[in-house]
Amino acid sequence: MIAYIIRRLFLLPIVLIGLSLLIFGMMQLLSPYDRLSTYVRDPAQLKQGPEVLKQLMDKYGLNDPIWVQYGRWLNNVIHGNLGYSESANMEVTKAIMRFLPATAQLALFAAIPVVFGGIWLGMVSAVHHNGLIDHTTRIMALTGWSLPTFVMGLLLLMIFYGWLGWFPSGELSNWAARIVDSPQFVRYTGMNAIDAILNGNLAVLGDTLRHLILPVFTLAYVQWALLLRVMRSSMLETLRQDYITTARAKGVAER
């Protein structure tokens, strides 16, 4: 076991270096405009003609030898300088820190139905093998496994937000966002639901949970499909074991 751990630790730097080379190599396939967009904060500078692009390429060292560019890029990555994000209109590192709490909150809430729903439905499907419940859950699992997350999210938004108007979009309602951004609301974790509990604000908590329903269902529905299939297969294999057959022959109840 110790030798296995040592071997894995020895391979870790090699894997990381290989991964960095792969990422850097893929970046070299981008156009000069796309490569410069990670350095230039004003997109208008990139639309001033080939001469300006060449000057910017020289300024940021994008015409240097490839090994020099790789060393500079790797040094920036190690020090957390990941460039500039046009979509977030801020540095990539700051954008990650800005959106990480919301991502963690969504993953945390989605994990609950994924784990419990996948395990429970997998067990029920196996117990009722080839029955109505089994066929229904298998169709649901196939649907969840086939649909990309963004497609499922768009469909749910179109139906439950755009058409029926049952659930809201976004992260918070305007009134809740004003409370969260106020000085009186302490941001302990950056996750709205947990911070609302710690601040004792049930109104913000309720609004947060209401906004989480659609994204949590989207993420959970797509993810629990795999867990359901694995649990169902494992349960079916267990139910076919000799000791289960013997217990049934002796009249032991299914429960």
Query: How many strand elements?
Result: 2
Number of helices: 11
Which structural category do the helix and sheet elements fall into?
mainly alpha
Proportion of beta-strand residues: under 5%
How helix-rich are the residues, as a percent range?
over 70%
What strand line-up does the widest sheet have? 1-2
Run of helices and strands: HHHHEEHHHHHHH
Instruction: Estimate nothing, just give the exact number of structural domains.
Output: 2
Notes on the protein architecture:
- The chain has 255 residues and is an all-alpha fold.
- It folds into two domains: 2-86, no CATH class; 98-249, no CATH class.
- The chain has eleven helices and two strands.
- It has helices spanning 2-28, 32-36, 50-59, 66-78, 92-127, 132-146, 149-163, 174-181, 192-199, 202-239, 242-249; strands spanning 84-85, 90-91.
- A two-stranded antiparallel ribbon has the order 1-2.
- Strand 1 and strand 2 form a beta hairpin.
- Helix 5 crosses helix 10 (202-239), helix 7 (149-163) crosses helix 10 and helix 9 crosses helix 10.
- The longest helix is centred in the C-terminal third of the chain and has 38 residues, at 202-239.
Q: What layout of secondary structure does this protein have?
A:
Blueprint: H1 2-28, H2 32-36, H3 50-59, H4 66-78, E1 84-85, E2 90-91, H5 92-127, H6 132-146, H7 149-163, H8 174-181, H9 192-199, H10 202-239, H11 242-249
Antiparallel strand pairs: 1-2
List keywords for this structure.
255 residues, mainly alpha, 2 domains, two-stranded antiparallel sheet, 11 helices, 72% helix
Care to give the gist of this entry?
With 255 residues, the protein is mainly alpha-helical.
